[in-house]
Amino acid sequence: MVDPVAIDALHAAATYLMLVTGAAAFVALQWLYAPYGRYSRGGWWGPLINAKVAWMVWESPALLIPAYMLAASPGLLPALLADPLSKRSLMAAAFLAHYVYRAIVFPLRTRSGKPAPLSIVLLGMTFCVWNGLLQGWHIVHQVPADARATPAVAAGLALWAVGWLGVMRADAALAALRKPGETGYKIPRGGLFEYVSAANYCSEMVEWAGYALAGWSLPTAAFAFFTACNLLPRGVRHHAWYLAKFEEYPKARRAVVPFLW
Ligand code: NDP
Fold it and tell me: Model pTM?
């Protein structure tokens, strides 16, 4: 028999660990970078795995674990469906919608993404198992069943939606830069790319900041914090890479945060 109090304590520890790991990753990523995408490397990072397969494998736990937790909790799914505008239903829908996109739609749409080494696939998967358990438990057991969609929740989810649409738009714009079979890089243009090199990362940070605002809880804030700690340094590296690669790269463009960073 699972003791919910013990799991809550474990859950709190895993949440604090995400905050600490995010801060440590932010520091480490000033010098290091994950060798996937344009920085992809094999060698001691392990054998290279097709990008579509890699993304599906490492992102799937963040979809499957919360979906299983929702489905396995007696009476929960009918309750959520019967009250679709409760805070819990909306947060579950937002989280799952993102991961249906990230684990299935995004990999299928990717154009000739560089293969990723096995160690990065395993690292990404570990994070998605961790975060899937964290957010899944939070939605199922910690968001009160009777919590309503207050104006703060609605504002957070509106921000989440702006970020999510921005992510999908930026991902699609990057995919459209390549014709089938092409593997090179071009200067992204249009929309948020006119302001930042990593419009996808900027939107992803907005998305999870909105989710954290809606959740107003440590687990949702920890995920938003970790995302920013991971994506800010990588976006800065992408920006420097573009400036070094393309002489004609727009000089006014920032890395991740318009006008600032
Ligand atoms: P990148 O921007 O590095 O690459 C995304 C895709 O676009 C890849 O297929 C890449 O190809 C291609 N691409 C990128 N730039 C160009 C260009 N200039 N010309 C042509 N093709 C290009 O993003 P990531 O792969 O790091 O991330 C993908 C998504 O996942 C993003 O939406 C990101 O926000 C999200 N993400 C979220 C994280 C989180 O912590 N929540 C962590 C990491 C990513 P190639 O592989 O060949 O470089």
Answer: 0.96
